[in-house]
Amino acid sequence: MNTRTILNVLDINEDLKQHEFSVFEVDTKSCVLRSYDRKSFYKICMITGEKVIQYADRGYKVSGTTLFFGNPLIPYSWENTTEQTGYTCLFSEDFFKAKDRSESLQESPLFKLGGTPIFSLDQQQRDFISSLFQRMIVEQQTAYAFRNDLIRNYINLIIHEALKMQPSEKFAKHQDASSRIAIQFIELLEKQFPIEQIDRPLQLKTAQGYADKLAVHVNHLNRAVKHVTGKSTTRHISERVAVEAKALLQHTNWSVGEIAFALGFDYPTYFNNFFKRMTGSAPKSFRI
Known about the structure:
The chain is of the alpha+beta class. It folds into two domains: about 5-170, Jelly Rolls (Sandwich), CATH 2.60.120; about 175-285, Orthogonal Bundle (Arc Repressor Mutant, subunit A). Helix content is about 45%, strand content about 15%. The protein has helices spanning about 5-20, 95, 125-140, 145-165, 175-190, 205-215, 220-230, 235-250, 255-260, 270-280, and strands at about 20-25, 40-50, 50-55, 60, 65-70, 75-80, 85-90, 120. A five-stranded antiparallel beta sheet has the order 1-7-2-5-8. Strands 4-3-6 form a three-stranded antiparallel beta sheet, with no helix packed on it. Strand 3 and strand 4 form a beta hairpin. Helix 3 (about 125-140) runs antiparallel to helix 4, helix 5 packs across helix 7 (about 220-230) and helix 9 (about 255-260) packs across helix 10 (about 270-280). The longest helix has 19 residues, at about 235-250.
């Protein structure tokens, strides 16, 4: 690995560590390796070249310029069959939503389970979306106080441009039984949030609780969710509770004990231990 490669990897990881966002140009001719934890970040990329995209349990052979939306819940990978050029941006849900406590990105038509968010672009679409990626790359290097807000606007423009399109019919995905159950679980999980009243605490807290609500055996639910998303049912629940906990700590004046109760913990100590295990920090460190 040459010096340029090492610097690129360090730059990307440093951006992700500090800002939970990174954008960069893709050019496989340069042999630059990009390294990051896929399961922590959403991905939007616009790539020109022939490739095979492995998405969930299916493979799609694509050529020309492709716009792809990657969900950290869904396993995916790329196999390049020709040289690739284009752009990629990576971002966490916390970065994208910032102070917004609306529904999760998992409910977005482009990111939700069950879709196949692969779009073929014509030249006009390619030029416009390229300009948005280029602007993000420029802003990423500035010291402008509101650069993250500006970058979020560019990401939203790409998302809305894609929402005006229809995924190519050749990429249509036929759902199997495991996919349907996993989708139902994720949708039910999202419906539990946001928590808006202390006296109406979280009701569904375990894999068994979700299995009962979905009228399936818990082992069947666990197998389906693990097969489709690569993560266990319990892990999904824990991660979503942790996200809500951070939002409540940052955007309400509830005490830590009240937040613990609202999220279904019997004692604040249990919540403190859970939060530290999930985030590496104590709950009070997330207070604004």
